[in-house]
């Protein structure tokens, strides 16, 4: 259990919430949204996805930038975001909505609505099993809220709202990653390592770290990870 207070508990406890942005972060996000185009706008009406899986104990972490937004998943008939709202409510409290498959993106019904991560994990699933992948891999986002494309928050806005360099929700995720470093977890950064290195400088010296070769496609395959990294991760999944 991380020593940092989980800021998401306040969102989970608010039965009258009008936004899925943390209360302390709402003013900043609202200002940010007035200054950027729709491509970078943060979606305030979609449940945040700061992390997925048993992030406090997982021996393998995937560090991503932020959860994307797909209009087809929102309004195209799958109703994906609304369907899994309750799952995310549990996840942000470190409860496991699907205990047998903590990384629930591999769960059969879920992947029918959103198969992006199932496809990216498929090489590891084929080499081991869906159960092992779900039980031993967790994902952590640099920024917890959905947008079509990521754009860093303006430093001036961050200072205006009384924060240092990052939001409380981000600082909490950084602490989760530091705890993974302490337990010698294997860490995979498919893209945007500069953001992670700046936030957590100790990652630069960390030896259990892996990268994908194709920035645009974070599939965790032998070709994309390299043979050595792929084998290390598979070994970690087996034991």
Overview of the structural elements:
The mean pLDDT is 92. With 239 residues, this protein is an alpha/beta fold. The protein has 13 helices and five strands. It is globular, with a radius of gyration of 17 Å. Helix 7 crosses helix 8 (130-136). The protein has helices spanning 8-13, 26-35, 71-75, 80-83, 85-91, 108-113, 116-127, 130-136, 155-160, 168-182, 193-199, 222-225, 227-238, and strands at residues 51-52, 60-64, 137-141, 186-189, 209-211.
Helix content: 40-55%
* Order of strands across the main sheet: 1-3-2-4-5
Q: Estimate the mean pLDDT confidence.
A: 92
Intertermini distance? 22 Å
The overall strand count is 5
Number of helices: 13
What gyration radius follows from the Cα positions, in whole Å? 17 Å
Record the SSE blueprint:
Elements: H1 8-13, H2 26-35, E1 51-52, E2 60-64, H3 71-75, H4 80-83, H5 85-91, H6 108-113, H7 116-127, H8 130-136, E3 137-141, H9 155-160, H10 168-182, E4 186-189, H11 193-199, E5 209-211, H12 222-225, H13 227-238
Helix pairs in contact: 7-8
